[in-house]
Amino acid sequence: MEQPNLNDLVASTGNLATLPGTVIELLSLLGDATTCAEEVKTIIERDPAMTSNVLKLGNSAFYSSRRKISNVRDALVLLGNRSVAALSFATGMAPILRRGLDGYGLSRDQFWNHSLISGAAASEAIRQAGAPHLCCDAFTAGLVHDLGMLVIDPWLHQNGIVLETEGPEYGVCRLEKERLGFDHCQAGAHLAREWGFPDSLIDPIAHHHHKEFNGIHAEIVRAVAAGNIMAEALDAGIESQSCPVVGECLTELGYSYDLLEKVRLDLTTNLEQTLIRATSSVPVTVS
After folding, report:
1. Bridge partners, 101 (sequence order)
2. Which of 9, 85, 239, 277 has the greatest number of CB atoms lying within 10 Å of its CB?
3. Where are the alpha helices (DSSP H) in 129-212?
4. Can you give the residue ranges of every domain in the chain?
């Protein structure tokens, strides 16, 4: 079987070829530490679905006992500009990421949940590493880290191929390279560049299966790598005590052995609470 050309695959991604304008605008704000509330508010209020989700998150169990959030401005005051921008970006990416990947044996909910959990876990990892100011960056990068699978899946499906791996391992990249000559990390980075993603997202997409990366965004890359490992472990119902390889992988990336259990505990709360915790630069506790 002839291996496909990566450029051709990216060019044929159909509705993946162009990001919604609102998502592109939010991306530019996420890359700017000086983003002001009015800029975020203007973008979100043009999208009713984003507005609805921001209000839902703002009125989650974390904050319901304090005050009622009735508009985007109130949410920005309560959650912070970058947190709201990151949460809105996730909302905008949902139609793209929430789809089944037959070539990987994943349902639409499995892929979406893995993306969300990876983002939340990456955020917790970078918080543990002492860089809470990078929580939004780690969450956003973790959310889109497997973007390349969306590029590769149509070719796998067309050729009747299913790539399945079990557990927190790097086997899927090996299988992809055997079949295609490249992996989903390379494919995702290629698509991310086409979309104009910043390097703080492209580097984690390109290197989240690499145990060593020393570039300028190494801290985020390590967090996303750890987030992906933890999400795979949680998907498979693996506990760090019963699977030493999980703890070993986390240790190699610079995290404590018990991080997986901390993330597992966080995920016992509802989705809204988990997402707000993941995008907040300060620890959030349930009231």
Report:
1. 106
2. 85
3. 135-143, 147-158, 171-180, 184-195, 199-207
4. 6-279
The 8-class DSSP code of residue 104 comes to: G
The architecture in CATH of the region 6-279 reads Orthogonal Bundle (1.10)
pLDDT at 79: 83
Rounded distance between C-alpha atoms, residue 78 and residue 171, angstroms = 42
- The 3-state DSSP class for residue 101 equals strand
CB 139 within 8 A of CB 278: yes
| pLDDT score at 222 | 94
Q: How far is CA 223 from the centre of its chain?
A: 11
Query: What is the CB neighbour count within 10 angstroms for residue 15?
Result: 8
Phi, psi of 106 (to 5 degrees): -115, 135
pTM of the model: 0.88
Instruction: Write down the mean pLDDT value for the chain.
Output: 84
